[in-house]
Design brief:
Pfam families: Portal_Mu. It comes from Bowmanella dokdonensis. This is DUF935 family protein. InterPro entries: Portal_Mu. The chain has about 475 residues and is mainly alpha-helical. Among the domains are: about 10-195 and about 310-350, no CATH class; about 220-260, no CATH class; about 415-480, no CATH class. Helices cover about 50% and strands about 10% of the residues. Helix 6 (about 85-95) crosses helix 13 and helix 17 crosses helix 19 (about 460-480).
Length: about 475
């Protein structure tokens, strides 16, 4: 199959941006409407997401997502060991060193990709330019949701003035990041959509809670006017009581009785319970747990650890979306400059704190059963094997080479043995041989008992006698 011919001049043509139409001018002709049931029933669109993100509680949860994404380091690995793959890696690394847009750095763009779980999808336009002999992205930026749609086949359609129903997206020009899409819903699932009703009820609860605090949060001054007072006298008393609320000082006529009524409320108010409940519901949607932000009653360490683990799992899954989008961009850069046969470099997150305790345990267990290659260990743990002249840190067991050196050293000591040493070594070898003959522990013990009458202990007896005589003589000298 012949290689696909890429029209580089066509990629640098940005006329589609000039033809892009306003959403209000278009009719839904071949467009698949966003099937989000909450937005459709509430008769709203994605613009409400910006208001939801302005909620302090929601913004606090989103900042956790932001830090879990942008705070990670990443690396770019070559597609294989070929020289062309290495050149593609260098080119993609050079692209990440330049601003993708005048208003954004790469961390900003990565977060723009990473916002896909919140809104369901993100679409970014890629403008290309020639730098020397290479075709590279000039600008990468997001476009509003009103400027695109998806057809019934799930294909991206760009709304333009020339194509009211939307025109097919040109290849290698649009990066699409989607969260949990399927054939019936190519728009993806938006987390902020599930936050809509809790956000609405919370705002309503806060409004009534503010009214409650305004009415009953401070004591009420009550004045009793004498019977038969005129309306003007009553109004004057009310004004002076209002002055008491503002200034805490008031002058009232003699004979007027005044008391202070205090509101007595115990426990959590219904409005406050509503606000806390809605906050917890939004936390569950965004981070899959609410314990970190809303601890009700006594905390639980086990529950906190479970919540943290669940949040880490979600963050790991969410980081996969921008990584896949950047890898798509790397594939385009590699294909247009080196051809489809060259494997594209791989963008991947580096989590040094996860040094895969699971992999370490796996290799420890496997090494006790079968021999394993060191190259497999280094590759799995993503470590570089040290060279001969590298300074190394090793805290594990000694390598087999050192054990072999130790064995050779022991053999060298045998040259200095006398006849008694050799005789004792022979006894030990005979016992070991009888133990090895037994297939079970009982057989090994029986073999040892049976061989004892046939063993020559004369050398051992001589050695013991000499040791006893030496100790006796040493004791006599010390006694004198």
């Amino acid at each position: 199959m012949a290689d696909k011919v890429i029209n580089k001049k066509a990629l640098m043509n940005s006329a589609v941006l000039e033809r892009m139409a306003d959403r209000q001018l278009l009719d839904l002709l071949h467009e698949l409407p966003d099937p989000d049931p909450i937005l459709r029933k509430a008769n709203i669109d994605q613009e409400v997401y910006a208001e939801i993100m302005g909620d302090p509680h929601v913004l606090g949860e989103i900042r956790k997502m932001y830090s879990a994404l942008v705070g990670y380091k990443y690396q770019i690995k070559a597609g294989d060991d070929s020289s062309q793959a290495a050149k593609a890696q260098e080119l993609c690394q050079a692209v990440l060193k330049k601003r993708p847009h005048g208003a954004m750095r790469w961390p900003d763009l990565i977060w723009s990709f990473g916002r896909a779980p919140l809104t369901g999808r993100r679409v970014h336009h890629v403008e290309w330019t020639m730098e020397g002999s290479n075709l590279v992205p000039k600008r990468i930026f997001d476009i509003p949701g009103s400027s695109y749609c998806f057809n019934y086949d799930g294909d991206l359609m760009i709304r333009t003035l020339n194509a009211l129903e939307g025109e097919p997206a040109e290849p290698m020009r649009w990066l699409v990041t989607r969260h949990m899409p399927d054939a019936q819903n190519p728009y993806g699932i938006a987390i902020l959509s599930s936050c809509f009703w809790p956000w609405m009820f919370k705002n309503g609860g806060i409004k009534f809670f503010a009214k409650f605090c305004e009415k009953f949060g401070i004591p009420w001054p009550v004045g009793q006017y004498p019977q038969g007072s005129t309306a003007d006298q009553i109004n004057e008393l009310v004004e002076r009581l209002q002055q008491l609320v503002e200034d805490a000082v008031a002058a009232v006529p003699e004979g007027v009785e005044m008391t202070i009524l205090e509101t007595k409320a115990s426990g959590e108010l219904p409005q406050e319970r509503l606000v806390n409940l809605m906050n917890r519901e939004m936390s569950k949607a965004i981070t899959s747990q609410s314990l970190a932000t809303e601890i009700i009653g006594n905390g639980s360490r086990a529950a906190a650890e479970t919540g943290d683990k669940r949040t880490d799992q979600n963050n790991k899954a969410d980081r996969g979306l921008p990584a896949a989008t950047i890898n798509q961009l790397f594939e385009w850069i590699t294909e247009v400059n080196f051809g489809p046969a060259v494997p594209a470099p791989i963008f991947q997150w580096v989590d040094k704190k996860e040094l895969n305790t699971t992999d370490v345990s796996f290799f420890k267990s496997a090494a006790e059963l079968v021999p394993i290659r060191k190259a497999d260990v280094y590759e799995r743990l993503e470590l570089t094997e040290p060279a001969d002249d590298d300074e190394i840190l090793f805290l594990g067991s000694k390598p087999k080479e050192e054990e072999q050196d130790k064995a050779e050293f022991s053999k060298a000591e045998q040259d200095q043995w006398n006849s008694e040493d050799q005789a004792i070594s022979d006894i030990i070898d005979q016992i070991r041989a009888e133990i090895d003959k037994g297939e079970t522990l009982e057989q090994a013990l029986a073999n040892m008992v049976a061989m004892v009458p046939n063993l020559d202990f004369s050398a051992l007896e001589t050695l013991v006698r000499q040791e006893l005589e030496l100790d006796f003589g040493t004791g006599m000298l010390e006694a004198e």
